[in-house]
Design brief:
Belongs to the sigma-70 factor family. ECF subfamily. GO terms for molecular function: DNA binding; sigma factor activity. By secondary structure, the protein is mostly helical. It contains eight helices and no strands.
């Protein structure tokens, strides 16, 4: 086996390993507790491994499996931190009710966020709500709507960009 001559050869190598061992990696993620989210995690893994500038990897499958395991650990830690934060926020919110001014500002910001989501178009708004509010996986949304997974991802990016721009407005004002 020859060493990759440049970054594109290395990238094709990682992509090739991910494609060739996709089912094995999905089973590994499922066994580690990903359940129905294994497909989404595989997409995250793909993005992480193909976006990085790496040199030659001695054992690409082992590298991919280690990265998948690290992704699961990150997910577990994030879920744990989210639980602790939600619990703390819930206790804090129960102790303090917002002022009428804060409630009014929040309602106005929510209306602006709804308008920003709607302005991205009917399909991106629907995809965003199915994914973020209903908790439906991206692959299922693509199947439901008869579009490709990349279309779902592109529409989500469009909505996220609109919400990020709105957030910058909130932070500046």
């Amino acid at each position: 086996m020859t060493e990759p001559r440049d970054q594109s050869d290395a990238l094709q190598g990682i992509e090739g390993v991910l494609l060739a061992h996709r089912d094995r990696i999905l089973r590994f993620l499922e066994m580690r507790g990903a359940g129905d989210s294994a497909e989404d995690l595989f997409q995250d893994l793909w993005m992480r491994l193909t976006e990085r500038a790496t040199g030659p990897v001695a054992d690409p499958l082992s590298y991919a499996m280690r990265a998948a395991n690290n992704l699961m650990l990150d997910r577990y830690r994030s879920a744990r931190q989210r639980e602790l934060r939600d619990k703390a926020w819930g206790e804090s919110a129960a102790m303090h009710s917002p002022s009428s001014e804060a409630a009014l500002i929040s309602r106005e910001q929510l209306a602006l966020a709804d308008a920003a989501i709607a302005a991205t178009g009917e399909r991106p708004a629907r995809i965003f709500r199915r994914f973020r509010v209903d908790g439906v996986h991206q692959r299922e949304i693509a199947r439901e709507m008869g579009v490709s997974l990349s279309t779902v991802e592109a529409d989500l990016r469009k909505v996220y960009a609109a919400l990020a721009a709105l957030r910058r407005q909130f932070d500046a004002g």
